[in-house]
Amino acid sequence: MKEAIFHLIPEQFSPIERNMVEADGLSACTFQFESGVCALRLKNEQGEVVILPFQGQQIWSAEFGGRPLGMTSFFKEPQPTRVYLETYGGFLLHCGATAMGVPSAQDSHPLHGELPNAPYRKAWVILGEDEGGEYIGLGGQYHHIVAFNHNYTAEPVVKLYRKSSLLHIALTIHNLKRSPMEWMYLAHINFRPVDDGRMVYSALPTPEHVRVRLSIPSHIRPGPGYVDFLQELKEHPERHHVFTPDKVFDPEVVFAIDYLADEQGWAHSMHVHPDGSADYVRFRPAQLDKCIRWIVRTADQQALGFAMPSTAEPEGYTAEKAKGNIKLIPGGVKVAFEIVTGYVNPTEAREFEVKIEKIVASARG
């Protein structure tokens, strides 16, 4: 593997977009949103992605296959804040790592933890080549330190390969303490649902393996028919598989799903569009053993987190601790995991659907 690294500082970013790196169909450009948030645009032959190098290293937007992949929300651009709901509209947000989910009355952690809008002091553009081919990407390091409590670094990497419409994402968490560190994580990947889109995924679509959340968080205001729809999905989760306009995903529906992996250890999930193309996510359950599905379809927001790999369900630290879902990193040890997400064309989508059907059929026996 060969790699060149270009270190970034906020002073390189301005409202005028500037080319930083160009090489064989790959490029990186720096710019600043009107809000003042720094952004990096990575492009290849298939599309582009915009990442916030100093604010959570979240992927703000992605466009492949001639269409935007991410959710629609109140926010047209990111805001310079650490408060989750005051800048919520990104395509992918890292959630965790000392806590994750919706805090209960017994919790003191912020919604989805400290990582989504964490202030990164170190960020760099990567240009390289490995077994997957030539790529351009973004990496960085966030150091979270609280006296007598936490001391860890988080190092995400996003790679965009030259001819690919998929993003290869990895995250490494390093516990710098000598004592064990409790940790939680969720990759909040927010696609955009479409009418008559289909869910295809490597899990048994039964109430035991696709479990709808019946509890209603304090920030949610349910509308007519919402509670009845949740009860229907409790008994028949497969009824959410096609996004017909009559479905009541207002204000949200959340599932916890037990995914099955293929022979290489990957679990697969797709939102297949009527034209045959698909939004796609794969992850390794051996690394992230839970997966959440989050759906919102309202007049103001359209979001489909159809596969959000995680270490726990999103009920907050106290509830997940009681379930035994808090993991430990020994002192001085690192954990790492990887996710692949993006767009696949109709031919690729059909190939993945066949693979998924084989995984599910094998589990059914």
Number of domains: 1
Output the CATH class name: Mainly Beta
Low-pLDDT stretches: none
Strand order of the largest sheet: 1-9-10-11-12-22-18-17-14
Described by the principal axes of the CA atoms, the overall outline is: globular
Main sheet?
9 strands, antiparallel
Strand content: 35-45%
Question: Helicity level, as a percent range?
Answer: under 10%
- Rg from C-alpha positions? 20 Å
Number of strands: 22
SSE blueprint and pairings:
Blueprint: E1 2-8, E2 18-23, E3 26-32, E4 38-43, E5 47-51, E6 59-64, E7 67-68, E8 92-97, E9 122-130, E10 133-146, E11 150-161, E12 166-175, E13 181-189, E14 198-201, E15 210-212, H1 226-235, E16 253-257, E17 267-272, E18 278-283, E19 290-297, E20 302-310, H2 317-323, E21 327-329, E22 334-344, H3 346-364
Antiparallel strand pairs: 1-9, 2-3, 3-4, 4-5, 5-6, 6-7, 8-13, 9-10, 10-11, 11-12, 12-22, 13-21, 14-17, 15-16, 16-19, 17-18, 18-22, 19-20
